[in-house]
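Final report, section 2: Outcomes. Of the targets proposed, Protein kinase domain-containing protein is the one most frequently requested by collaborating groups, and we therefore present its record in full.
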Amino acid sequence: MPLVAKILPTECMDHELEMWKKLCALAGICVPGLFGAYSLEGQNGCEPTGALVQQYAGKTLSSFDTLDDQQRLELYRTVTRIHEAHVEHGDLSPRNVALDNGRVMVLDFSHSSHHECEGEANCAELRLLRRGLKLSV
Ligand SMILES: [Zn+2]
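The predicted structure is given below as tokens.
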């Protein structure tokens, strides 16, 4: 399985790891699997750096328009499941969605936060996504 390493400041990595704990049941399904997290001490005045080793989830999108109807619905269901796991993504742009062999995954939880989803009628992120994906109401 191909892997990628995301290099980021340690404090950002700690935040993403907090979110990963909520999302671990969706790993490999809705979000990439996580295979390791490393913290490197800062040296010579550099900030401490973190590295998240994740499953390669496929090519990221340039636009939601590249998805067919089924993939659009799949992405919406994926984000719904992420919300059910009490995480709001916070930056659902095409560059944070990957497509591999028709499977859709959501990436990059650096802007995410704890979320108690009250369903689409009362959830701004789901409503915005539905509009962005041009899904019928
Ligand atoms: Zn929600």
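The chain has one domain: 3-132.
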